[in-house]
């Protein structure tokens, strides 16, 4: 059972923290318990009016915290006990983020120098100055303890504790940001890439860099990651495509958008469609766009078919131009500039699998070509290890496969009041008598990525036009 802060018997009913702290101690001659009670009163921000607390040779006037009344006593006491550790963690995070309270970078620089000296000369230092290092560690602990006590005395209320907790949370998120942005698929790709380069790592660690040097490089990278000068250097180096390409092949992660064009054909098509939206004045006229996503998988020996791809090949989900795309569950319609009058809405209720894979698989006329609940191997086209020699049959020479998901979206005019609910508009027949512009897309040849253009003319249909001029 939790000890009572005012010395009451545990069987007695619980009272508020304010009344517990206000109750006199049974043994007033116990100086240690008296100082503990005053410290709890200071940290909880309790004051019954103009109460002054003696802290050694000085008098400290503590104002009441507005958080004291709504905070349960057990929570307040827990925060009080946690406060010193929060101060220590906040100080460590200040050093790692190069964000010291006095604005100087000297403590972080000393930390980097200390780490470098410890890693490089650890054996020599422990052999000749090990006894002195113990005294230095004790001295550093005394300085840290003094810093904690000064901070507790200067900022003794619950508001200060909550403020420190917020700072610790923000700095921890800042340090963990490079890792927290990685999803499960990125971690798998990183694991496969690192495992693939294991022989290279062994050669480097045996010939060029010893484990001590690797530890030094890794530690310095972590300690200086948030240093202003190194942030500027990384930003300048990141402008070179060669650097981004090197990071991509080493980690398997596309941090610099290497798998995307500066503006891929799919985004060009959407921008062109958004331009058409500005010219629509007829409420009965609409545009439909068929979104296409490809699900790519690779077969691993002993594992089977998974969405884990090699670092240098296409992603597990791509658009029809082989650019990385979101999964269907997280796919979002684009936002257009003229959002006040037009917006994109889904015509289909959910994504559907094209069982014919854009005509590559022949089905009976009685079988449905689209389905929203496919089987595990339904609709896949199989390829060899280099995504060539496609086939509808799964053989022992096939190591990659993909299938096609489609969903139709419609550009609607939101400025028209009392507009009927949107429904699927047929390409050849429109029951409302309006004109329909159908935006259709097609799959490029395997192994190649061709730039395509979208032409919006006075014609009713919008076609995707390859560079060779042949209209599909």
Q: How would you concisely characterize the structure shown here?
A:
Residues 424-451 have a biased composition (Basic and acidic residues). With 472 residues, the protein is α+β, with helices and mostly antiparallel strands.
Mean pLDDT: 74
Count of helix runs:
12
Helix residue percentage: 25-40%
Low-confidence stretches: 1-29, 44-63, 260-266, 417-472
Tell me the overall shape: extended
Rg is 33 Å
What are the secondary-structure elements, in order, as H or E? Answer: HHEEHHHHHHHHHHEEEEEEEEEEE
The assigned structural class equals alpha+beta
Q: Main sheet, how many strands, which sense, barrel?
A: 9 strands, mixed
- Kindly estimate the percentage of residues that lie in beta strands according to DSSP: 5-15%
- Count up the domains: 3
- Beta strand count: 13
Q: What is the CA–CA distance across the termini?
A: 78 Å
Structural commentary:
With 472 residues, the protein is α+β, with helices and mostly antiparallel strands. It folds into three domains: 17-174, no CATH class; 182-251, no CATH class; 265-466, no CATH class. It has twelve helices and 13 strands. It has helices at 17-22, 31-44, 73-97, 106-120, 122-154, 158-180, 184-196, 198-208, 211-223, 228-237, 241-251, 265-278, and strands at residues 52-55, 58-61, 286-300, 304-306, 317-319, 342-346, 352-354, 370-371, 381-383, 400-413, 436-439, 452-455, 463-466. Strands 3, 4, 5, 6, 7, 8, 9, 10 and 11 form a nine-stranded mixed beta sheet that branches. The protein has a two-stranded antiparallel sheet with strand order 1-2. β1 and β2 (58-61) form a beta hairpin. α3 crosses α5 and α4 (106-120) packs antiparallel against α9. It is extended and about 85 Å long. This is Peroxin/Ferlin domain-containing protein. Residues 424-451 have a biased composition (Basic and acidic residues).
């Amino acid at each position: 059972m939790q000890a009572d802060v005012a010395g009451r018997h545990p069987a007695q009913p619980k009272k508020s923290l304010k009344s517990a702290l206000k109750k006199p101690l049974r043994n007033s001659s116990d100086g240690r318990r008296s100082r503990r009670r005053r410290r709890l009163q200071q940290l909880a921000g309790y004051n019954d009016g103009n109460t002054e607390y003696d802290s050694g040779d000085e008098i400290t006037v503590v104002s009441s915290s507005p958080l004291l009344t709504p905070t349960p006593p057990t929570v307040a006491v827990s925060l009080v006990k946690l406060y010193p550790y929060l101060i220590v963690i906040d100080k460590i995070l200040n050093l790692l983020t190069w964000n010291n309270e006095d604005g100087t970078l000297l403590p972080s620089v000393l930390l980097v120098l200390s780490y470098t000296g410890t890693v490089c000369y650890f054996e020599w230092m422990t052999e000749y100055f090990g006894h002195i290092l113990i005294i230095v560690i004790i001295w550093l602990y005394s300085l840290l303890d003094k810093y904690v006590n000064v901070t507790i005395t200067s900022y003794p209320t619950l508001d200060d504790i909550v403020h420190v907790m917020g700072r610790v949370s923000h700095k921890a998120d800042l340090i963990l940001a490079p890792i927290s942005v990685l999803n499960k698929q990125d971690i798998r790709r990183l694991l496969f890439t690192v495992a693939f380069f294991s022989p290279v790592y062994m050669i480097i660690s045996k010939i060029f860099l010893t484990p001590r040097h690797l530890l030094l490089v890794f530690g310095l990278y972590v300690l200086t990651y948030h240093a202003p000068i190194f942030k500027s250097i990384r930003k300048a180096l990141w402008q070179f495509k060669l650097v981004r390409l090197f990071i991509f092949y080493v980690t398997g992660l596309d941090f610099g958008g290497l798998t995307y064009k500066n503006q891929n054909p799919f985004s060009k098509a959407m921008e062109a469609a958004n331009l058409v939206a500005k010219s629509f004045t007829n409420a009965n006229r609409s545009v439909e766009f068929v979104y296409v996503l490809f699900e790519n998988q690779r077969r691993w020996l002993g594992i089977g078919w998974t969405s884990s791809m090699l670092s240098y090949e296409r992603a597990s989900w791509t658009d029809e131009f082989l650019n990385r795309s979101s999964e269907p569950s997280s796919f979002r319609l684009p936002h257009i500039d003229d959002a006040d009058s037009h917006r994109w809405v889904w015509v289909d209720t959910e994504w559907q699998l094209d069982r014919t894979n854009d005509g590559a698989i022949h089905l009976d006329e009685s079988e449905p070509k689209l389905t929203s609940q496919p089987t595990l191997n339904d609709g896949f086209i199989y390829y060899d290890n280099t995504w060539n020699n496609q086939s509808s049959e799964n053989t022992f020479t096939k190591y990659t496969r993909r299938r096609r998901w489609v969903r139709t979206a419609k550009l609607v005019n939101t400025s028209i009041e009392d507009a009927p609910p949107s429904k699927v508009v047929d390409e050849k027949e429109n029951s409302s008598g309006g004109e329909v512009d159908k935006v259709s897309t097609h799959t490029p040849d395997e192994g190649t990525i061709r730039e395509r253009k979208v032409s919006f003319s006075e014609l009713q249909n919008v076609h995707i036009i390859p560079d060779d001029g042949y209209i599909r």
